[in-house]
Amino acid sequence: MASKLTIDEHKRIGAAIKAAEQRTAADFSLVITPASDRYPLHPMVWAGFCSLTLAAVVAFIWPRIGGRSVILIQMAAMVVLNLIFDFPPIRLWLVPDRIKRARAEHLAHREFAAHVQAGGISKHRVLLFVSTGERYVEIIADHETHAMVPGGTWDKIVADFVGKVKAGRVADGVLSAIEACGAVLETHHPAAKS
């Protein structure tokens, strides 16, 4: 899901959001983020563990090596490994899936709350949240909208989105998810006729 969107795809997505919002009285938002957290602790912990292990191996293989030399090797390994492990794809690989999922879910709900706080007059809101680093997608709706929509509707939209992304069609996945969310909102919260 790490595929970057082109300028043209951004324009198409913006137009799709605008079209969906015009067909409904609800507010619809899309958030795409490269990662839901910086995860600063994980590279440091892994670098520390690996440098300690390396120091132990060096001390075992060369028992006559001095303590200062082992500490210098350990410190150098810690710095180098921390730099390597801080590279975003490696950093995300080091973080356990349950933590990545929890952080992505937490950010999705914070984003929804922020959109509610900053939102306009509509009390009906839907947020399509995508975190590419964690490979996480969630649709969050206000309580009333969620209750009106048949069970499994949001899950089907997410499953279709994920299927398109796995096929390498990220922009198509986003566009179809926007269209599907717009159709649901148009059904349950149609735009006021002028």
Description:
This protein has helices at 7-22, 41-61, 67-85, 88-94, 97-118, 143-148, 153-166, 170-188; strands at residues 27-33, 125-131, 136-141. It has 194 residues and is mainly alpha-helical. The protein has two domains: 7-37 and 97-188, Roll (Diaminopimelate Epimerase, Chain A, domain 1), CATH 3.10.310.50; 41-94, no CATH class. A three-stranded mixed sheet has the order 1-2-3, with helices on both faces. Helix 1 (7-22) packs parallel to helix 8, helix 2 (41-61) packs antiparallel against helix 3 and helix 7 (153-166) runs antiparallel to helix 8 (170-188). The longest helix has 22 residues, at 97-118. It is elongated and about 85 Å long. It starts with 6 loop residues before the first helix and ends in a 6-residue tail after the last helix. The relative contact order is 0.19. The model has no long low-confidence stretch (mean pLDDT 90).
- The oligomerization state is single chain
Count of the domains:
2
Q: Radius of gyration from the CA trace?
A: 23 Å
What are the secondary-structure elements, in order, as H or E? HEHHHHEEHHH
Features:
194 residues, mainly alpha, Diaminopimelate Epimerase, Chain A, domain 1, 3-stranded mixed β-sheet
